[in-house]
Amino acid sequence: MRSAFSALLVLFAGSSLFAEAPKRPNILFILADDQSYKTVHCYPESHSWVKTPNIDRLAQSGVRFDRAYLGAWCMPSRASLLTGRHPHGIESMRMEGEYPGSTYDPKQCRFWPSVFREHGYHTAQIGKWHTGTDSGLGRDWDHQIVWNRPKHPKNAGNYYDKQLLAFNGEERTVEGYSTDNYTKWASEYIRGAHRPKDKPWFLWLCYGAIHGPSIPAKRHLGLYKDAKVTVPADIFAPRPGKPQYLDETQAWSKGPGGEPVMGKSGEKFGDESAKKAKTHAAWVQQVNECVPAIDEGVGEVMKSLRESGQLENTLVVYSADQGFSMGEHGFRTKLAPYDANYASPLIVSMPKTIPEGKACPQPVNAPDLVTTFFQFAGLKIPWTMHGRDITPLLLQPESTEWNHPLLYEFTGHDFGSDVTTLLKNKGKAVYNNVPWYVAVRHGKYKYIRYLAPGEIEEVYDLKADPEELTNLAGKPEQADVLTRLRKVLVDELKQTEASFVEHLPATK
Asked: How far is 138 from 127, CA to CA, in rounded Å?
């Protein structure tokens, strides 16, 4: 049977860009920070007043995926995106020193852009870095303009201005709105600056927005100040049938007239609730006002691709490291296993190669994206990766034949064998009051199993209950579904070399 990638090459061969010989595609990977899919207009869950014309246009030119599950928070998300492995399979990565200080051994923990370099790609990274003080210049990246948060903890809160940046190793503080700066430098690179013209390229454009303190560009301040905001159904307790820890992470209190008002979120950076306790509506408006600058950035880099004649030979991927709850389940942070906290948008486009204007109901995780990048580049996977090639979904987004489960997880700031060691020794599998967990999506169901003892299981029918309000795990009529999903989860853990599968706490 012909592989999906072979089918892709046949499709390529029929297009003008492969009239003579296959030309390896460029890859532009745009990654926002803490962006919920609910902040993008083309997602039906967004508020009607949200406007993202350029991201919507990108979706119209390609495939919009239902959800992406790239990571529970900044560091593990990026670690998975750089290795193609789930956090439990990434050795030597660890937090070290003043937060967000972190480190890794590049011999044990290789990042795949180095492989692209070895095979003729020119690689570049622009923007936020949150994966070890070693940002990989000269090993993983040929060109880099990096805001290295782990290396400079005192500057780690400067998400929007006065950033200490390293321009190919030369450090200096830069004024100006960071989103706009990153867009400018990315556009220059796409148009040919800082790279040879005869090589394919990979550019990882890492915006720092929408991360707290969620400061919009001055030109967008107040853009949505009169917008009507819907309050999530379970912003306040009680939440029958859901885990008890949600009461400990409650980030909203009742203000005058019962209106939700900020409480403490648990975020290390960006939680201004102590001095600026905004209402829920004002905060949601502010978060969404950060998006237009990113949307304008998407418009600019796509314009650079068109005007430089590279559009049809560039795979463009838009996503975010994770989502961010805007009151759902009482949160104002990421971390938790619910879509509102964890899931982000995902859009993939390549004119004349990928179908246009399609929506794919299947979710995707970080290792899936990395595996697919290798397929598009025509390169052999250099080490065991945990992802599935999603090329079949890019070719036929509405196919009903894709029946693979999707695994995602949260193991705090622990990685690799450290996860197994902690669970084996019955250590504290909790981070920022959220218990560690593993979860799968399969068909219309989501199953969540916590790695801290004493927590209940959760099962949600995402088709009937997309906001995950009703936990089905304890209902007798769902016993067969629960049993099946338990096995699906264990099988996925074994397939992805999760040695801690032997140390799962007993189900409650």
From this structure: 17
Instruction: Give, for 424, the enclosing helix (H) or strand (E).
Output: helix 417-424
DSSP sequence for 317-354: EEEES----SSGGG-SSS-SSSHHHH-EEEEEE-TTTS
Its sign, for the CA torsion 419, 72, 235, 264, is positive
Sheet holding 458-461, edge to edge: 406-410, 437-442, 445-450, 458-461
CA–CA dist 79, 238 (Å, integer): 36
Shared-domain flag, residues 151 and 56? yes
Tokens of 162: 């006065």
CATH number of the domain bearing residue 441? 3.30.1120.10
CA 245 to chain centre: 24
Looking at 348, 367, 395, which one is the last position of a domain? 395
Total domain count, the chain = 2
Domain that holds residue 424: 406-503
Whether residues 424 and 376 fall in one domain:
no
Helix (H) or strand (E) holding 430: strand 430-431
Query: Residue 276: inside a domain, yes or no?
Result: no
Domain end marker among 340, 361, 395: 395
Each of the 508 residues of the chain gets a pLDDT tens digit; together they read 234 444 555 454 444 333 344 689 999 999 999 999 999 999 999 999 999 999 999 999 999 999 999 999 999 999 999 999 999 999 999 999 999 999 999 999 999 999 999 999 999 999 999 999 999 999 999 999 999 999 999 999 999 999 999 999 999 999 999 999 999 999 999 999 999 999 999 999 999 999 999 999 999 999 999 999 999 999 999 999 999 999 999 999 999 999 999 988 888 888 887 778 899 999 999 999 999 999 999 999 999 999 999 999 999 999 999 999 999 999 999 999 999 999 999 999 999 999 999 999 999 999 999 999 999 999 999 999 999 999 999 999 998 899 999 999 999 999 999 999 999 999 999 999 999 999 999 999 999 999 999 999 999 999 999 999 999 999 999 999 999 999 999 999 999 999 999 999 998 7
Q: Are residues 61 and 132 in the same domain?
A: yes
Tokens 């819907």 locate to: 230
Question: Residue 179 class from Cβ within 10 Å (0-12 exposed, 13-18 middle, 19+ buried)?
Answer: buried
Shared-domain flag, residues 43 and 162: yes
188 contacts: CB under 8 Å, gap ≥ 6: 194
- The answer to whether residue 469 sits within a structural domain is yes
Cut 0.85: pTM above it: yes
Residues 367 and 488 in one domain: no
